[in-house]
Design a protein that fits this description.
This protein has 17 helices and twelve strands. It folds into two domains: 192 residues, Rossmann fold (3-Layer(aba) Sandwich); 167 residues, N-(1-d-carboxylethyl)-l-norvaline Dehydrogenase, domain 2 (Orthogonal Bundle), CATH 1.10.1040. The model has no long low-confidence stretch (mean pLDDT 94). Helices cover 43% and strands 15% of the residues. The chain is α/β, with parallel strands linked by helices. The chain starts with 12 loop residues before the first strand and ends with a helix. Strands 5-2-1-6-7-8-11-12 form an eight-stranded mixed beta sheet, sandwiched between helices.
Length: 373
């Protein structure tokens, strides 16, 4: 597929992260004709890209994206050089790295720059914004987050990435919410698939992975270890009893959102909207989702479904619930079990109201920050 020429004015992009999503995004942007700087904190990951002179982007047939060899304006471990002159900084790293990236970026931030987290998980944009604010670098700077990663992709070689799918619509929300149209307009020359989301509290709390990933992995831990994940994660791993646990988790998440004055869709509603899968119960809706059939479980419990989704999705929901007076006993139970399994303190590692800049705030304060900045 021939690369399309960018519209003008063409933003300059800095892509932070050379993993699956980062390489897919950097390669895609470069093949569309945009100036791209690629940053990664480890030199080892960048050496093969330098030796090749870029990355090869391979797209599945039917995926409406260009394929080919993508070259970058700069490939570096120097975040200041990568950000210098960039209009948009695309942060495409696991959520556990958001705080590190914010701290690294802070000394080099220039007025007018836009930062977009892909995705923010729960509270990503709030945490990033809080770090920049603490460094006094938030004036005339916009921080936003996508609800999910736009690419379904895997690095197949050290300088080669395969893209299996490209989402048609992904919501983005900014802090403050009224800056969201500005963010959409800025990246419109490259992406028409990003659409305005309501606000960062919605993109954060509508993170359905917080409900499906950690609990299903915890409840199936022995099965994962004994079979190396040789079973269907959603179909075999979520029986009626497990589905009731997920419904309890989901009810707590929705209640936290409501306490902050935001309507969050339930997991059952999300399945219907995202996949057209309907059911009287969450179990029925999961079984009705054809997209879940054939998806295998992780091969081990030491997986991002635990070490990313627990501290960066479940902990911030429970922490916000504590601030707002909403009990989250089921969420806390899964966090505790995950901590025992991994012998880690996910509360210490995770996002809390303190790291998100919400400590001591009232509902009015939170809404003012999210909606008005």
């Amino acid at each position: 597929m021939a690369a399309k020429k960018p519209e003008h004015p063409a933003p300059v992009f800095c892509v932070v992260g050379a993993g699956n999503g980062g390489l897919a995004m950097a390669g895609h942007l470069a093949l569309m004709g945009f100036r791209v700087r690629l940053y990664n904190r480890s030199e080892e990951r960048l050496n093969p890209i330098r030796q090749r002179g870029g990355v090869e982007l391979i797209t599945r047939q039917g995926c409406h994206m260009p394929s080919g060899e993508a070259e970058f304006e700069l490939v570096t471990t120097d975040i200041g050089s990568a950000m210098d002159g960039a209009d948009v900084v695309m942060v495409v790293v696991p959520a556990t790295g958001h705080r590190f990236v914010a701290e690294a970026c802070a000394p080099h931030v220039k007025p007018g720059q836009t930062f977009i987290l892909h995705p923010g998980r729960t509270g990503g944009a709030l945490e990033f914004h809080a770090v920049l604010k603490r460094h006094g670098k938030i004036e005339d700077v916009v921080v936003a987050e996508a609800q999910t990663l736009i690419y379904a992709c895997r690095v197949s070689n050290l300088a080669q990435v395969q893209v299996f799918g490209f989402k048609n619509t992904v919501p983005i929300a900014a802090i403050p919410a009224h800056s969201t149209p500005e963010v959409i307009a800025r990246i419109r020359p490259a992406y028409r698939e990003f659409v305005p989301g309501d606000n960062v509290m919605k993109t954060s709390l509508d993170n359905i992975g917080a409900i499906f990933h950690p609990a299903v992995t915890v409840l199936n831990c022995s099965r994962i270890e004994s079979t190396r994940g040789d079973f269907e994660y959603y179909i075999d791993g979520i029986g009626r009893s497990a589905a009731r646990v997920l419904e309890a988790l989901d009810a707590e998440r929705v209640a936290v959102g409501a306490a902050a004055g935001f309507h969050c869709m339930s997991a059952r509603e999300w399945l219907y909207i995202a996949y057209g899968a309907a059911g009287r119960t969450l179990f029925d809706a999961i079984r009705a989702n054809e997209g879940y059939y054939g998806i295998k479980a992780p091969s081990q419990v030491d997986h991002r479904y635990i070490w990313e989704d627990v501290p960066m999705s479940m902990v911030p929901i429970a922490s916000l619930g504590e601030l707002l007076g909403v009990p989250c006993p089921t969420i806390r139970a899964i966090i505790s079990l995950a901590e025992l399994m991994h012998e880690r303190d996910f509360w210490a590692e995770g996002r809390t109201v303190e790291s998100m800049g919400l400590a001591g705030m009232s509902v009015r304060d939170i809404r003012r920050l999210v909606l008005e900045g």
